[in-house]
Amino acid sequence: MRLNRSNLCWLVLALITVAYLLFWALLLGATATYSTPDSWLQVLRSPEIRHATFLSLLTCSLAAGFALLLAVPVGYLMTRLEFRGKSWLDAALDIPIILPPLVVGLCLLIFFQTKIGKVIEMAIPFTYQVSGVILAQFVVAAAFAIRTMRGTFQHLSARPEDVALTLGCTRFQALWHVALPAARRGMLAAFCIAWARSLGEFGPILVFAGATRMKTEVLPTTVWLELSVGNLEAAVAVSLFMVLLAVLVLVAVRATGEKV
Amino acid sequence: MIQLDQLTWSVSGRTILENVTVEIPANTYAVLMGPTGCGKTTLLEILCGLRRPTVGRVLLDGVDVTELEPRERGIGYVPQDLALFPGLSVREQIGFAPKLRGVPLTEKKQQVNRLAEQFGIVPLLDRLPDMLSGGEKQRVALARALAAQPRLLLLDEPLSALDESMRAEAVALLQRVQQEHGLTVLHVTHSSSEAAALGHLHLRMVAGRLEVG
Lengths: 260, 213
Known about the structure:
The complex is a heterodimer.
Chain A: H1 5-32, H2 37-44, H3 47-80, H4 86-93, H5 95-98, H6 101-111, H7 115-123, H8 130-155, H9 159-166, H10 171-182, H11 184-200, H12 203-208, H13 219-228, H14 232-256
Helix pairs in contact in A: 2-14, 3-8, 3-11, 8-11, 9-10, 11-14, 13-14
Chain B: E1 2-11, E2 14-24, E3 29-33, H1 40-47, E4 55-60, E5 63-64, E6 75-78, H2 90-94, H3 96-100, H4 105-118, H5 134-146, E7 152-156, H6 164-181, E8 184-188, H7 192-198, E9 201-206, E10 209-212
Parallel strand pairs in B: 3-8, 3-9, 6-7, 7-8
Antiparallel strand pairs in B: 1-2, 1-4, 4-5, 9-10
């Protein structure tokens, strides 16, 4: 095949892509070969890591569930209703995505020192508690779930919901009976993305919920704790476990047909 | 009888419909023609309550329904893309309106079966929309609209997705349905032959204004 200008262009673009993927493969490969599978298993069997794993799975699932409960109505509203100031609200919903993670944690910490925050804490204590871990994960994960649900509803035609209104539905019934069943895959994707985001959350948890062993320690906190005491093998084992979980989530999202 | 009284619809300073006034007697098959983008679909959406007119009124049998919700109007709507509900079987699509009305299960089944027989779609009852041809989808959309027992049926180019061989059959079906159900129909089309075959009343929309002719 003759290498014309068009083919050369594709070849250069392909090389850039391959170089990027290769860089990532090298990063993960280096991490994976730092220690042996036996030492990974030994680390992952320790009571502290098992507790952190269990707490991570639990808090991520709850945070993602709450994020989805918020994302569905907000995503639907932002897609189907036209109103003044919508673009500003749209931008405001993305604020948790662009805020530095430590700032999110600091905002949470300061909020729960205010009068309203203290009243809330009388009912449900959050600061330096497991519920605080869930809240810290939720505030950021919700923004990603909303973004996913917004995309899902944008891709679904509003016409079947319009027809449902003429067949006797209220707007809420049209959402429940027509839009939600059609958005099932998007909802699953939003849950997975919120779950994965929660799994990687570190800054807000460290500031707001702390890093107490066997109490508020989740997997990212474990990596940080192990690194801070110089136990690189344990940090690597936990990191690889998190990579595995992230890959599983990515596969699940891809299976829904949605894009991350 | 449908009465449109000086309907006007404007958006972003642009007038799409201007002083549309017309009366369509009960049990009439009216056809509406006009160039693309002249406001035909907008008119149907105002009629069934999906859009509020900027000015003017919609009256059904003498009752002003302009401020009513779509579900309170008793108007069936079959849009151009048919808008079947994704993920619901044909049986569930037709049973959708009776279920919302709280029709008892046995009666709902009878209604669904009766409409399925009338439209020749009994073998399709358990299929999903993705597994239907264009003609089958059109029949399901019509059956679904009629299950709500509307007084008026609005059809937005319902035959546009069908090939020539199926159109004659579909035209005959629409005639039969209108007569059997004693419906008033407003049918939007670009096809002169379709309009000639079906229409008792011929309407033409030009630049947002409606002409009867």
